[in-house]
């Protein structure tokens, strides 16, 4: 099975800490400008998803009981559907709405195009 989204070890470590502080979490990637182009991490249920959003997958984090859902706006997905996303974390100030903001770090997306084989498996060719 081809994953559309994954995470670095550093992001997983931060998500373990954030889950202890906030409970179950979820991500949403909106595709706006500035902080809107960063993945936003919320307590699960605090951000309402709907028909204008695409569920890219669930991130399994060792030590976290529940997978962390990753959602993207459908408009942004149209641009990124041929891309594998990796959630990473870097030092810096992110959006005040994302739960990692007080930690002095922010989540960041690193991306690569799917291989032809991955694209075929996902029905993108």
TrEMBL record:
Protein name: DUF779 domain-containing protein
The organism's place on the tree of life at top rank: Bacteria
Record-linked InterPro entries: DUF779
Pfam families documented for this protein: DUF779
